[in-house]
Amino acid sequence: MGCDGCNDSFARRKVIPVTTLNIAKKALWLHDEGLQQLLHCLSENGEEARVVGGAVRNQLLGYPVNDIDIATTCVPDEIIKRVSEKGFKAVPTGYEHGTITVVVNGHSYEVTALRADIEPDGRRAKVIFGRDWKTDAKRRDFTINAIYADANGKIYDDVNGLADIESETLRFIGTAEERIREDYLRILRFFRLYAWVGKGRPDAEAIKACARLKDGLLQLSAERVWSEVKKMLSAPDPTRALLWMRQAAILGIILPETEKWGIDAFRPLIETERVMRLPPDPLLRLFSIVPRDEVRLKKMAERLRFSKLEKTRLMDFARISPIKYNSSDIEIKKLVYHHGKQAVLDELTLALSNARAHALSNDNALVEASHYTRLRKLAEHYEVPVFPLTGKDLLPLGITEGPAIGHKLKALEKRWVESGFLLDRKALLDLATA
């Protein structure tokens, strides 16, 4: 999870009861011809293959299924041999750890040999391949991720995962501390999955273990940390997960920027997204809980290895000034022109959520929220105009090429913006010669 595309049906999902021992009737994805061919070719001549992890978990929880992982008794070389003979593409994406990505009819499946992890160092582990399904299940992270289904839909559960599915409990397999020491990223995976599927208070043993071992997060690569945080922030409502992360002193390790700023603005933003029917936006949600400090946010983007697009959006957010609720339409249009539509929408959405947070106890805030709603719709649908002049238009006027043209264009563009984008090409050329 992400939850593999759960947002659209989050409210409509229905958890399957633990008495369900076969998912074939409702799991339409299981009947895909390519998937069935792959499972059967890995199950011939005494071998066996089963779907495992997120696909089975999501099916049982009532979420959509997108990514499908497969476990098999075949070792990596045998996986490659068998799928290649069937004409499927095999990519050794994680060969040393037993994982081969298999492409069938344009769909990718991660196929992993049954294994046991040995000599873990908190980030990775050496592995030995085997044929015991229970051993493979016990080396996984959470009970709800260690449920298998064969090609016929029959369920296999060696870790009591079905009971945890029904109660929507997120629980480590075996001892939480032992599982975390194998890979400290599991701390963040715990809160990420809790944000998506957790119900009620989180497992007490898990929270205590995460808090005790939180310093292990410092060993992880920035890319892995940001990937997990972003997936958590994409959940329909990760508020409780964030609160428990703060309670366990984990939030301050991965996002120290939130320590003095707090996360009080987070819940109003979630509610605003719901009312405005906006999709969960992990970046905007992050903006709501960090200070608008360009220097600190630049360091945060570098530390977490933001993508170029993510960093650009973050810096645009840091640089744009707060927008007043009584701003005129033309002021909003000018802001969109100068800062880009996304930055203005981000600022207006946060301003709207802040106003909504105070609307119940403050009539003025209710008025502000109404104005911000209108301004946001204006910015969302505004088509940014194109400046009607280029340098070539100035050459016939005797303006020499080089810096002079650039300075003149900049001055004319400023006049054009100040006019509310009303000056046309002829009027601008007349100004150029004045």
UniProtKB/TrEMBL annotation:
This is Poly(A) polymerase. Keywords: Magnesium, Metal-binding, Nucleotide-binding, Nucleotidyltransferase, RNA-binding, Transferase, tRNA processing. Pfam families: PolyA_pol (PF01743), PolyA_pol_RNAbd (PF12627). One of its GO terms (molecular function) is nucleotide binding. Its EC number is 2.7.7.19. Residues 205-260 form the tRNA nucleotidyltransferase/poly(A) polymerase RNA and SrmB- binding domain. Its cofactor is Mg(2+). SUPFAM superfamilies: Nucleotidyltransferase (SSF81301), Poly A polymerase C-terminal region-like (SSF81891). CDD domains: NT_ClassII-CCAase (cd05398). It is an enzyme of class 2 (transferase). Belongs to the tRNA nucleotidyltransferase/poly(A) polymerase family. It comes from the Bacteria. GO terms for biological process: tRNA processing. InterPro entries: Bact_CCA-adding_enz_type3_sf (IPR050264), NT_sf (IPR043519), PolA_pol_head_dom (IPR002646), PolyA_RNA-bd (IPR032828). The keyword Coiled coil does not apply. Residues 49-171 form the Poly A polymerase head domain.
